[in-house]
Design goal:
This protein has an eight-stranded antiparallel β-barrel. 11% of the residues lie in helices and 60% in strands. It is elongated and about 50 Å long. The longest helix has 19 residues. A hairpin with a 7-residue loop joins strand 5 and strand 6. It is mostly beta strands and 167 residues long. It contains one helix and eight strands; from the N terminus they run αββββββββ.
Length: 167
C-alpha cells in the first residue's frame, strides 16, 4: 500500500522528468583567445551531443561531449571537451548554466601544449520551441596550457554561441 501511494505521489514528477529530459545535438561558433595574448581571437566551430536530465522542476544536469576548435590567431587546438553542466530554469524557456569542463587536446600547432585543460563556464540558453534552442556561454580557463612549469601562465578563454536540436 505504501509503495502504491508513493508511486501515485511521484507520478507527476516522473512524467515531468520524462517530458523535459532528453538528448540531442549541439553546434555553433567559438571565439577563443589566450589570456596573455595580444593577438586576435580565433573563430572556430564546435559540434557534439548533449543529454539533459531534470533532477528537479527547475534544475537539470547536462553532460556534453563536443569537438571544438580553439586557440588564438597564432595557435589552434582541436579539443574534445567533456562537460557536466548544472542548468537552472527561470521559466520553461530560459535557463542559466554553470559548466565545469575538461578539454582533451587532440591536435595542436604547438608541441609544448598540455594534453588536458580545465575550465569553468557560465551561460544562458533560450528554448525557441520543443526541438530547438539557442545558447551563449563563456569559458574561463583555469589551467596553464603549456609545459614546462617555468612557461608563462597562459590560459584559453572561449565564448560560444550554440544552437541545440533535441532528438
Amino acid at each position: 500500500m505504501r509503495l502504491l501511494l508513493l508511486l501515485i505521489f511521484m507520478a507527476p514528477t516522473l512524467v515531468s522528468w520524462a517530458q523535459t529530459s532528453g538528448g540531442g545535438l549541439k553546434a555553433g561558433l567559438n571565439f577563443s583567445k589566450f589570456n596573455r595574448s595580444a593577438s586576435e581571437s580565433r573563430i572556430g566551430l564546435h559540434v557534439g551531443g548533449y543529454y539533459q536530465q531534470m533532477v528537479h522542476e527547475q534544475f537539470g544536469l547536462v553532460p556534453e561531449a563536443l569537438l571544438s576548435l580553439e586557440g588564438d590567431d597564432n595557435t589552434s587546438f582541436t579539443n574534445l571537451n567533456i562537460a557536466i553542466g548544472l542548468r537552472y530554469f527561470f521559466i520553461k524557456e530560459l535557463s542559466a548554466e554553470l559548466v565545469p569542463q575538461l578539454g582533451f587536446v587532440l591536435g595542436d600547432e604547438n608541441t609544448n601544449a598540455k594534453s588536458l585543460n580545465f575550465s569553468i563556464g557560465l551561460g544562458a540558453m533560450y528554448q525557441l520551441n520543443a526541438k530547438v534552442g539557442l545558447g551563449a556561454r563563456y569559458y574561463s580557463g583555469l589551467t596553464n596550457l603549456y609545459e614546462p612549469v617555468n612557461a608563462p601562465n597562459i590560459k584559453n578563454n572561449t565564448f560560444q554561441l550554440s544552437s541545440y536540436i533535441k532528438l
